[in-house]
Every structure is written in C-alpha cells, then in structure tokens.
Specification:
9-stranded mixed β-sheet; globular; Rossmann fold; 11 helices; alpha/beta
C-alpha cells in the first residue's frame, strides 16, 4: 500500500508533537526512530507514525504491531508511548489517528462509527505489511481503551493479525447502549428514540450535534465527573497530557451505530492468542472480564492484572506502564 512521508507538527517542546513521557525528540542513528507518514483510506488521508527499532535495516525481518489509540485521543498520547516502547523491544510499530480524528482527514469531524474504527486497524495493517523490513506474516495489534474494543472486532474478522492484545479495554457499544456499569440500562429505547429525533432535526438544520468536550469543562465539573475513569480522563486529557487535536467528543448521531455494536457478541471468532491487560483498581475491568469470558474460540488467552492500577494509570503512569509493557513484550515475542 502506498504511503508518503509527512512533515510532523510540533507541539510544546516536542518537534513531533508528542506529549507522553520520554518521547523521542529527534531521530538518531542506532536508536529508535519515528517516521511520520500519510496514506489513503478511500479518498481520506490518514496520518500515522511508524516507529523502527535501534539498528533497524530495511532488508531485515521484523514483526509489526498496529497500535490504536483510546477514544478521543490522538497518536501523540498513550498510543505513541506504547508504540515507541514496543519499538525499543525490537518491533516495527505504527500508531495512527483514526479517520476524522487528529491529523487524519474525514468530514464531519470526530465520528465514532464502529465500521470506520475497525477499518482503521485493517488499513494500518495494509501499510505496516508493506513497510520495508516488516514480515507480513508476523503482524499483531494492540488497542488501548476504546481502541481496544475496536481491536477485538478487527481480530475477529482479519486473520492477518497473528496475536491481539488490549490495555484497559473499553466497550464503547455497551457503555453507550446501557450506560457505565449498566447505569442506563432501563432507558435504552427512550434514548434511541431521542437520537432519531435528533437526526431528524439535523436533517433540517444541516448541523451535527456533539457531546460536551472535556477540554471545555470547568475544572470543578471535570474533577467531579462520575466514575474514576472519567475523572482521571479529565486530568489526563485536559491537565497532564493535553493535546490540541485530542477532542473527547463524538457526533451524537453515531449512537445509532454504537447501540447496535458490541465486540462481545463475536468474541468466539477470535482464535488468535489473546492478552487482555487491566488495572486491578480499574472501574472498567468488568468489560475486559466479559470479553475474556466470551473468547471461547482461542485456547491461548490471558487476563493480566496490573497491581494497584486504575484504567487511566495504564495510559502513562511509570511503573504500571512498565509492568504492562513487560507483559506485552513477552506476549508478542513468544507469539510472533
């Protein structure tokens, strides 16, 4: 698949725009390097970063890992951290911006449509499988948070991925449909009718309706959001690891698609080795546990618990991220 070099957009003090800890600031010989690229997705330009390991050779033979970001995030945040660290372990990795997100094209912006999010993984696999030195028979994927749910769906249908791992997996369909910890399970049909009314209004006005963006919230509101994941998410995306292209919003009309999507329904189609990493204190752990139990098609699966970690801790917190990455590295090295 054709891809082109891309000029990175600096942010803060980082010339590549990275906001994660220990991020690359320059490409140096005999070290991990980053290669900003773009590629085409049915007429839409996708922006991505390919990370190559120290001593990388174009005529080498490397396993490749596709890394997908959390909902509302961009490649310069947690996905970039994991992609860079896995490159340090010897893999060639790619972290991309989902279509309509970050530097990737696509209008209207900030859509959360399951088909598009799953296709993002397949397109990234197309690119990575043709990157110099990558062995196309040794591809894997890693999905973070909402990107983890979409990674599971991609693994169900695309068997080019020889192994699949997720960290702090978030089942977007389940949460949009039934609410966090099923807190809105008794209002599903009412909310579907509300979305139908909203779409009817949008057809008349021509303007899409979005949920509130965390970056626009007053700090007192952000710090009092319900559930640890949302409160810590506010701190991560707005205060400690903010990036101007990371918008925690999506078009409300996308609820029509999300209500009818759930990776758990087809987890039996995952026959690849499966690793699910979850924080011991994550209030989203029930989502990983449910998907793990439903993965009856693989005899090689593990639910790995990081002691003391919450959902968002595994985006950035030293020690806990190290624990997760050590497990991921061991998993990918042994299965690829």
């Amino acid at each position: 698949m054709n891809y082109q070099p891309r000029t990175p957009q600096p942010y803060g003090d980082n010339p590549f725009g990275f906001v994660y800890g220990d991020a690359l600031t320059a490409n140096v010989e005999n070290a991990v390097n980053v290669h900003p690229i773009t590629y085409d997705a049915a007429g839409i330009t996708v922006a991505a970063n390919v990370y190559t390991p120290a001593g990388y050779r174009e005529d080498g033979s490397y396993a490749g890992i596709v890394v997908g970001h959390p909902n509302g995030a961009v490649k310069e945040q947690a996905a970039g951290l994991y992609a860079q660290r896995l490159a340090q372990a010897g893999f060639v990795t790619i972290a991309f911006d989902a279509v309509t997100t970050g530097e990737s094209g696509g209008e209207p912006r900030n859509r959360d449509i399951p088909y598009l999010r799953v296709e993002d993984y397949r397109l990234a696999a197309d690119v990575l499988s043709t990157f110099p030195g990558v062995d196309a028979s040794r591809l894997a994927m890693l999905g973070l948070c909402g990107g983890g749910g979409y990674a599971l769906s991609a693994a169900q249908i695309d068997k080019r991925f020889r192994a699949v791992a997720v960290v702090s997996m978030f089942n977007t369909g389940s949460v949009r449909r039934e609410g966090f910890i099923k807190s809105q399970a008794d209002s599903v049909l009412k909310r579907l009718h509300d979305v139908a009314d909203l779409r009817a209004r949008e057809a008349q006005t021509g303007e899409l309706t979005y949920n509130a963006n965390m970056g626009d919230m007053d700090p007192e509101v952000g710090h009092k959001l319900p559930f640890d994941m949302y409160r810590e998410g506010y701190e991560y995306y707005v205060e400690t690891h903010a990036h101007p292209r990371a918008l925690s919003r999506f078009a409300q009309r996308d609820l029509m698609d999300l209500f009818a999507w759930d990776p758990d329904a087809f987890m039996y189609l995952v026959d690849q080795p499966l690793l699910m990493v979850v924080g011991e204190k994550a209030d989203t752990a029930y989502m990983s546990e449910s998907a793990f139990d439903a993965a009856v098609g693989t005899g090689d699966k593990e639910l790995y618990v990081v002691p003391g970690a919450t959902h968002v801790d595994l985006y950035w917190r030293p020690g806990m991220v190290d624990d997760a990455l050590n497990k991921l590295t061991e998993f990918f090295e042994s299965r690829l």
